[in-house]
Amino acid sequence: MPLGLGLLAALVLPAALVLPAAAQGQAAAPAASAPDVQVYMRIYPLSGDTLLYEGLRTVRRADGQVSVTTTFKRPDGTTIQRTEDVYVEATLAPVVFHLEDLRSGEEETLTRGDGTIRMSYRATGKDAPSSGAVDAQAHQVSTATVMPFLLHEWVHLAAGEEVAFRLLVPSRQDSYAFHLRRVDGAAAPPGQLTVRMEPDTWLVRRLVDPLFFVLDLAPPHRLREFRGRSSLKTDDGKEQDLRTVYRYPDEG
User: Three-class SS string for 149-187?
Assistant: First the structure.
């Protein structure tokens, strides 16, 4: 069974579009509704400029919740993966998550209940999913809320402090301890802040290399690039680390 941490690259949300108060270390006040926002993604190997995939993400805010739907395609237009996430805007608590890979048939789901979070995973070639649950707790992050959480902790990260959280992983029906920390030196381009995300345990670190987020220093701290493990596996089902570049509607 895969670790499932590759969901990060697929689901990293340009939260500056939906969490404007995050840079002040506060959750945004929920809005009744807001216009849909679309964000475009171009996905490359970690090294090189060969376009491998394209993504379109639609962010919708209504009744105190944020809904994020994403479609990934090959450059020829063939859809290969779809995801849907819903979370509570004020608290970042996950409500529901679903991922479907149209090539392999893999599916992952997450549903929040009373005090628990239920998760399931259906592997390639399997008719029935495996499932389990964990207790809901503070600083527990789903893949769709990694970026909103990062922005909520912006003041601490910009000051060089380490921020800890637990990442929910539906393919394992469990959560894992991670931490975020600012990267200094050559890895921090002028006018931008690079944040490194790394597992706390040595076993997970053996499976997944650190992941990197590159954001604008200036508000609203837009995410410009993500580098790391992706949910978009190769056609023969192998995990891959990729580079995702984000483009926003008002930038042409």
Answer: HHHHCHHHHHCCCCEEEEEEEHHHCEEEEEEEEEECHHH
